[in-house]
């Protein structure tokens, strides 16, 4: 089944609690005086929808095996929607986005996490830098020990980054898109002039 495949690829960390449909709307009502809060909450939900859409397209049986990650697809989220890169039919993308939104909002929460997300790279870089600094301070100043320590830091970071990145996605950089509705899906060019589709969304209160 597609759900099991997405869970397998997106990480082995189940949600410790069930996301509530009104949680972001309630937070926004309580803290509506905080500048930029709505944009941040929207961006997290768009990020999850972007990941879910890539999973659905990868599982559609077109250019990828069912349940596989189509590495030719990628995305970039904004607080107004997301860019989808890769060769995909506009009509197919419209169906995939609606399917992704329905599935992720109805309990397939692992679709929010994707192994090729930039969050994983950021976590890996921070982890490598932190371990390297710690080892540099802990070990004697000899060049050989320092070099070996840096190598150990890089290896440790590479092993830990995927799991920590998945956790960061699940609890920090994404949120289940309970408050999003899809407005439009259309071919476009991004700010760098690259061909893409833009999936425009809007915030709706539950």
Output the keywords.
206 residues; alpha+beta; disordered N terminus; globular; 6 helices; 4-stranded antiparallel β-sheet; 52% helix
List the helices and strands and how they pair.
Blueprint: H1 2-10, H2 23-30, H3 37-58, E1 74-78, E2 81-85, H4 90-105, H5 118-138, H6 143-173, E3 180-189, E4 195-203
Antiparallel strand pairs: 1-2, 2-4, 3-4
Helix pairs in contact: 3-4, 5-6
Can you give me a brief rundown of this structure?
The chain has 206 residues and is of the alpha+beta class.
Describe the structure.
With 206 residues, the chain is of the alpha+beta class. The protein has helices at residues 2-10, 23-30, 37-58, 90-105, 118-138, 143-173, and strands at 74-78, 81-85, 180-189, 195-203. It has two domains: 2-113 and 174-203, no CATH class; 118-166, no CATH class. The protein has a four-stranded antiparallel sheet, with helices on one face. The radius of gyration is 19 Å and the shape is globular.
